[in-house]
């Protein structure tokens, strides 16, 4: 383990473990699911909005891990900047610009992106200061007319415990969800393969729709659209931009809803 783990977070098993308890070797085994399709469907086709046509659509991936999603996003034409606090994770991310930093402490000096991606339930960080800081970092780095794509837990995520699902070569089990206060749980996840076993314990803050919207608003963001039937993928926009976007919709049909997107429908069926 290279660094101190975050309070309430830990991991066991072979190889390097990140401060939030993730095992690098485990994440190297996982293939992308529907995430790249959901992300690509959510972002209008064409060049970026920042005038950087040579770069295409710029995307800041927060908490990129070993680049499981980075590679397919690059294949879909995004110009990705990948951020993670773990050097052992980042060592596996190749072919894109990488930045080692906490998300909450990230400051790229005024650089803005067409898309900021906050996947992997990182919006549920247990520490309130970290949680607020992560959303402020999203706002700080998204263009005023850009979008923040957030993957959050489904409404029943904490209730369907224990549960397990099969990955390509192993089993993922959400073994327990123990309340530590009114809206935070300590989650234990087990990953089992024939030749290895990892565990991760982490804190997860539960949102209602109201508290989710309030957390975004405190960072200057507003929910623009729920992208998948299970409610787990959300597009947020900077508040001023969200108002303008809403007005545009007042005069036209929505561009799409989650039902229009095959990837979103598939993701809704395969929710973890
Ligand atoms: C569960 S892994 C998922 C990685 C990637 N998003 C994926 O889907 O494959 C979470 C990653 O986020 C990183 N991470 C978690 N909290 C972070 C924070 N506050 N700042 C920077 N990195 C963080 C961890 O080091 C880890 O690599």
Automatic annotation (TrEMBL):
<keyword id="KW-0808">Transferase</keyword>
<keyword id="KW-0949">S-adenosyl-L-methionine</keyword>
<dbReference type="Pfam" id="PF13489">
    <property type="entry name" value="Methyltransf_23"/>
</dbReference>
<protein>
    <submittedName>
        <fullName>Class I SAM-dependent methyltransferase</fullName>
    </submittedName>
</protein>
<dbReference type="GO" id="GO:0008168">
    <property type="term" value="F:methyltransferase activity"/>
</dbReference>
<dbReference type="GO" id="GO:0032259">
    <property type="term" value="P:methylation"/>
</dbReference>
<dbReference type="InterPro" id="IPR029063">
    <property type="entry name" value="SAM-dependent_MTases_sf"/>
</dbReference>
<keyword id="KW-0489">Methyltransferase</keyword>
